[in-house]
Design brief:
Blueprint: H1 11-21, E1 25-29, E2 32-36, E3 43-49, E4 52-55, H2 58-63, H3 68-80, E5 87-89, E6 105-113, E7 116-123, E8 129-131, H4 143-154, H5 159-168, H6 175-193, E9 203-213, E10 216-225, E11 231-237, H7 244-260, E12 266-269, H8 273-282, E13 292-295, H9 296-299, H10 304-320, H11 329-341, H12 352-355, E14 358-360, H13 365-382
Helix pairs in contact: 1-3, 4-5, 5-6, 6-11, 6-13, 7-8
């Protein structure tokens, strides 16, 4: 039955739905939303309390009824809960002969060499043997040793400790070899993942943290999705107070728009002036829905998510005793580790990419990413 003909129809529900459909509901935190007044004059705060949703508007405050702003928040949440089409990155399986493309293939023993054991296949159609080591061709060491090194390093070990741990597994490498692996594969995976758009929320957080590059003081600007904790973009800057800081923040927001394919409806930062000027440059529009810039100090918004994120990055940087260069693959690698590999307790053991609609399958996620990135690079070359 149409909404207008229902006997129990509440006109506030229809008005709240209209507000949500034009982007008038902005998420500040899981328990706080800002809803634009339908008249266009100001907005109201809708909070989740122990007794349910409450609103600061007069309609709810004096009549104690479910106002249109609460209806708008509930409608917005229903839209958000709709199932999106996820991107699933699966481990590669061998299902056809590389020579005649027949599917009549069987496993036929192992090939032993210095790098370890590689599965051999034989084709019943053409009678030829072949092996596939996608992503690790001409590598002296096997994929398990290489991906274990990445897991150890980005989990917090130093290059030297990673090399020592690998020796206990029978993988004889130097710390320089581990560094070479990181350089080789971080760029490969980054190019592959840049082509996939994460389904992040409409509320983003930006913050900066102090670090050192070759012993010199620098700042890492980071853009984080508030809901999925997906690390959207990063920028290493010389300072945060000069005019150049506005350019650094603008570059950060430009990267965010390119990665997410959209701009946020709510941007939460600290009171650094560079953020507000960059917000006006990159996010502000005359047409609605407009991006609203909030500072967590003024709004009383919890900033623990950014503080926890900064703490993990600082722990990684502390082990390295400063970065060696601003465009270090270490930051790219840690961003991949944070988004796609490391499960987060605050996300119930899931990765940020899973919540953002990108699921990496397989017990060894590094291996899955490297295989798919290598296949994508070969496909690009053939085209």
């Amino acid at each position: 039955m149409p909404l207008a003909l229902r006997a129990d129809h509440d006109p506030r529900e229809e008005r709240g739905t209209a507000i949500a459909q034009v982007g008038g509901v902005k998420r500040i935190s899981p328990k706080l939303y800002r809803v634009t007044s339908q008249s266009g004059n100001g907005s109201y705060g809708v909070r989740l309390a122990a007794s349910g949703w409450t609103c600061s508007c007069p309609d709810h405050f004096y009549r104690e009824i479910k106002c249109k702003h609460i209806w708008g928040v509930e409608f917005s949440l229903k839209l958000h809960d709709r199932v999106h089409e996820n991107v699933v990155i699966q481990p590669l399986t061998i299902n056809a002969c590389v020579f005649c493309h027949s599917t009549e293939i069987i496993k036929d023993g192992l090939r032993h060499n210095k790098s370890g054991e590689i599965q051999k296949f034989s084709c019943k159609a053409c009678g030829r043997y072949f092996t596939i080591n996608l992503g690790f061709e001409r590598m002296k060491h096997n994929p398990q040793g290489i991906t274990t090194a990445m897991q150890l390093y980005f989990s917090g070990e130093s290059l030297r400790n990673t090399a020592r741990s690998l020796r206990l597994m029978g993988v004889q490498v130097s710390y320089q070899t581990v560094w070479n692996w990181i350089q080789k594969y971080m760029g490969l995976m980054e190019k592959y993942l840049d082509k996939i758009t994460p389904q992040v929320s409409d509320t983003w957080r930006a913050d900066e943290m102090y670090l050192k590059v070759k012993g010199n003081p620098k700042y890492l600007y980071a853009l984080l999705d508030d809901e999925t904790r997906f690390w959207i973009a990063k920028e290493v800057a010389g300072d945060k107070m000069s005019r150049e800081a506005v350019d650094y923040a603008s570059d950060l927001f430009q990267q965010g728009k390119a990665t997410a394919g959209k701009r946020p409806l709510t941007l939460i930062t600290d009171q650094l002036r560079a953020y507000h000027l960059a917000y006006k440059r990159e996010f502000y529009t005359l047409k609605g829905p407009r991006t609203e810039h909030l500072t967590w100090q003024d709004q009383g918004v919890d900033n623990r998510k950014m503080e926890a994120f900064n703490g993990t990055v600082r722990s990684r940087e502390k082990v390295m005793r400063s970065l060696k260069r601003e465009d270090s693959p270490i930051l790219d690698g840690y961003q991949i580790f944070h988004n796609y590999v490391r499960p987060h307790e605050a996300l119930d053991g899931r990765t940020p990419s899973e919540l953002a609609g990108i699921k990496v399958e397989g017990e060894n996620k590094w291996l899955t990413l490297i295989q798919n990135a290598s296949r994508g690079r070969k496909a690009d070359r053939s085209n």
